[in-house]
What does this fold into?
Amino acid sequence: MEESDKQPDNLTKRSNTTRKTDSSTDTEDLLVPDMQTHFMKDHGVDATSQTANIRTADMITIPDLIRKKRDGGQLSDDEIKAFIQAVKEKTIQDSQTGAMLMAIWLNGMVSAEIKALTREMMSSGEVMEWPDEWKNFMVDKHSTGGVGDKVSLVLAPALAACGCKVPMISGRGLAHTGGTLDKLESIPGFKVEQSREQILEILDSVGCCIVGQTETLVPADRVLYALRDITGTVDSLPLVTGSIISKKGAESLFALVLDVKFGRAAICKDFESATELAQMLVEAGNGLGIRTAAVLSGMNSTIGQCVGNSVEVIESLETLKGNGPDDLMELVTTQGGLLLVMTGLVSDLSEGRKQISEAVVGGAALSKFQAMMEAQGVNSDTAQRLCSTNADYYSVLRKAKHQLELKAPADGIILEIDGLVLAQVLHRLGAGRSKAGEPVNHSVGAVLLVSIGQRVTKGDPWLRLHYEDLALTPDQRNHLESALTVGADKKIQTQQKRTLVEKILPEKYQ
It folds into this structure.
């Protein structure tokens, strides 16, 4: 997923609502046989000691913590700290960690617990430090993942052009959503792995960087993230919140904007669950002292016209040259404008949107993107070719061996393009990965040749597919063709502009 915490399609609401377990789960199955595992150096306990089963005022046992949370109790700050330290220092069995994750999934967490969990996860590793003169301008964004979500590639350099410092720590794609790091690695030479010292140098000279998570940043999250994946607990809102916000907190940000998506192609399928997640994320961010806001945006179709690593880089570069699609620019200007408001660089969202738009359309953001590419390992000649007017992109980027155009099945108006279906087919053709560490084919992708609200004639091409050795199977082709809905809605007379942003939290920023 793009800069996101992986979750299944149906996001389960597990926040501060206590759920009573049935007879099949309210058993010792959530506990573990080893009652000798205890906490830890911070509490002066030897994990191998036979006396560690005795609970005292300054000693907390793992099984006791699991029981307490399993039975719907509220964990104290010290108890959460003890749990996270055990995870970090590997003095807890995976089975015990899994039991605690399930207990949290079943019973949720109240606000105080979520704040403590997030804070302790953040503090489990290195917390980045910045020069004093930068501190009020350190900003970042996070997206819960979407189809064709290339916002970061445009937003980071635009914010840098407006005077912000953007240490954007992003992720790789998993399942149907694309990853920012995968997109950037389709550019020859682009290095997403950078040391803390290199990040400082790039921020000093350019103002923005887009990098992967370092080994020392939030190590507890690495452990919990992997175990959530195999224990069926990835859709716990408190755990999602802790994972996302702890990593942003470790960046020592001044301001953060969260793009929480809802719809068929999003993690949250409805506006209500997206709102619940957004409120929890904002509260957790503010709890760490980060000025935090959230944008709730629709995710039924795609963002822009391109889906896939190389083709999304091309669309991002075209956007930075002033030729971007309206829906992508709406997200870029709204999120960027919010960050400018929160840093005090502008007085209101309207002015913030204007400044971000001018940075993109006027070319200042493109210059920053070129400088960022060169600072992160791209040859200067390659960077210049990509950023030049009328660039021959495929003289630099890998082009798929084959292309296939799909045709409109009837006369009418484009009523719908299902982004999830499109992403799923591309994933199977090699654009995505099924598990962490798998390679992706950067050249696989698709370009939409039509837009929602556009009138088409039967036989008009509506999609150009880029693929390699894996050709479409008949089933995949049928599946892909089902993504397009053509109708005769008389209410739609002309092509209409789509608005993706539904709401902004807190409402004072609207």
Remarks:
- The CA atoms of residues 444 and 467 lie 5 Å apart.
- The longest strand covers residues 255-262.
- The two ends are 28 Å apart (CA to CA).
